[in-house]
Amino acid sequence: MEKHSEIQFKSPEEIADFQNTLLRKQMMYMKEHSPFYQKLFKEHGIRFEEIQTVADLQKVPVTTKNDLQEFNKDFFCVSMSEITDIVTTSGTLGDPVTVGLTKNDLDRLAYNESLTFSNAGLTKNDTIQLMTTIDRRFMAGLAYFLGAVELGAGIIRVGNGIPELQWDSIKRMNPTCCMAVPSFLMKLIDYAEAHGIDYHNCSLKKAVCIGEALRNKDFSFNTLSQKLHDRWPELHLFMTYASTEMQTGFSECTYGCGGHLQPELIIAEFLDDNDKPVTADEAGEVTITHLGVEGMPLVRFKTGDMCYHHTEPCSCGRNTMRLSSVVGRKGQMIKYKGTTLYPSSLYDVIDDIQGLSNYVIEVSTNEIGTDDILIRIGTTIDPEHYDKFEKKIKDLFRAKIRVAPSLSFESPEVIHTIMFPQMSRKPIKFIDKRK
User: Fold this and answer.
1) How far, in Å, CA of 11 to CA of 44, rounded?
2) Can you give the pLDDT at residue 44?
3) Quick one: CATH architecture of 333-432?
4) Mean pLDDT computed over every residue of the chain
5) CATH topology of domain 1-327
6) What is the domain partition of the chain in residue ranges?
7) Rounded alpha-carbon distances, angstroms, from residue 335 to 6, 326, 348, 377, 405
């Protein structure tokens, strides 16, 4: 693929013209190759040639996760003989969707992740320790590996978990950066402190983080990242946001003020429940249109993730759109005792509580048809002190979000088993049992 990394630093007008040119090219490709969009455009009386600019995309109905699940094969634009890598989504909000990537799609994926690393100030002189899985039909792990190769950096494929092996690899190979889920970094710290490892003076200086929010709306650290920073101030944290369907990521630069869009790879809209654009002070559902994807390109795909977006120039010199950490997932919104919540607001309270080892949140439908929240907490606190501990936790919830969920205290081992089921590729902290 052609690479135009310099486009990030051009004027907003030049970026818009550049994206419009790529969009027209993508539309012509899909006119010839996409069974799903051929049918969709025909049903709605839309010609592919009408889509000349990003603004014209509003003529096209959105694509949903239900569409991907129901018509999965119709989204493929090439035969299986042209597919190089086959992955699936995590299935957080339903059945997993199969995604196929061509060789060119993999090159595009590698380029995207090399830009992610470049945004974080990494170069070919860095070594990256991969603390996420590269197997289990997981796109991200392979993307990080390919991105490091594209950048020319070294990479250590340790995989997820196993703090002992992580620290052994850090000691032996001196990586300068890691790819990790933020909450796992807390476990690395705990292990280091328990085993006399001087992590403050180890080789790791940066962590590119996935899967969990790092920042509040104003880009300040949230509870989890603040605790990480307080305990390991030498480690610079970088936020990323991506999904399997997107085949692209948004990543922070060193100024830490939102994930930068890559203009040559993706178009992003932020829509409300009626599929209309939201203003900058409203959270909208991230809706993406691919540029340059061959195997399974998408148009106006609603990801289910709610974010804020920012269009003012960044201090790094880039003029690209930036997005916040994920506020929540559309399908995970909770209405509890008259208050609308996302799991992230619950995480932010729980992560600030001393005395718990781990937790999962279960949401169910009660006998009157409204949402109930149960937080199952793993703790080693003596059961004699449960009442006092419960009061402390509930008071904290009421102070921060006005309502207090039900609590259940259990062993950390039981909660760990729930968080890490055998087929899972990442920790599960939210379980939706609603009807």
Assistant:
1) 35
2) 96
3) 2-Layer Sandwich (3.30)
4) 90
5) Rossmann fold (3.40.50)
6) 1-327, 333-432
7) 44, 18, 17, 21, 12
